[in-house]
Design a protein that fits this description.
Length: about 375
Amino acid sequence: MVAPRNRVDDERPTGSQGRPIPDPTCGAGRLTCRFSRGRVNERAGISRCGRSRSARQQLLVALTQSTFWYKVRLAVVMDPMVREGFCNEEVAEAHRTLATPGFVVSDFVRRGSVVRRIWGDGDMVLLVFAGSAAEFALNRAVDWLFFTGKLPSDPIGRLFVTAGYAQHIVFADELTAARTLDRIRAAHEGVERQRGQRIPDWAHRDVLYMLIDYSERAHALLARPLSADEQSELYDVFYRVGTGLRIPDLPRSYTEWRADRERHLRRDLLCSDGTEALYAQYRKHLGAWRYHLMLRAQAILAPEHVRGLLRLESAEWLRPLARLYPMFIRAGLRSILQRLLIPAQYLPAVRGLDNLASRPRSRAPGILHTPSSPPA
């Protein structure tokens, strides 16, 4: 089984593809000597700007003493929880390091990954959110969706905002992905301040678990079941997403996650007035026959417990048709099917879901466009 990556497991840190992070003290950009004067204080738990460090931050510094870039890269990219422990001078030096000619920032998700394959395919992305729409409506924390009013007032539009954020993480470099996760987390914190409450940690895990599970189910429906290595890779990516969002108590492996996913399904879902209200909005924005098609898709995507709570009728007859869908694509019928199945006002957004996978990424980090309105 592939172990989750991007954690401080070895003496020398590694990037998302398991390769050692380049040492900027070799060749261009010798940074260690410039900052060696701060080493004694750092070991004592004091930053160069005189700010005391937490035990977690001191551990990170101790593990990354050999190279300043290791420390800042791990703090800024891999572990946002310690970012505030570094002063402006240190963060500025990190940005100068990034601008060093020949310096490479790794992709957040490796090229050729099954995760890129899923999230670069607009049809699979739509299936992920069709399934997630069922669990959103059943979640015990559904009242948070109604507090902002954004999702109930325009559930389809919010789907594309959320999908845009997910894609701009999957197809970004590590630094851009970290900044996108920061924006999402800041949006959640803003909603919490408005309401004067905290979104429960279990609710954050529920949403993350939906994206993992329905990614796997969408790929199985339109292509094939994931292999064991692909399942581990899928979980590894979303583990790092969850870490970037500061979601606590995430399982360490796909196998552990599968058991925890089942526990969350049994504990956190129920039918409520919020369920009926959200499904009424789905029907309003999709129209009657597209709404019933969504229900059929949910019936073949959702776990058995979700189907039972929503009393979804069996739609196993759709599975053979789904297997034929790639043939329709190869026959050039995709555009016709999209016009038939998708409301006209959402067609450009649906077609845009495919574009990111084939769009070349700039060599410079941090310039990938992200949607203007974080999902909340």
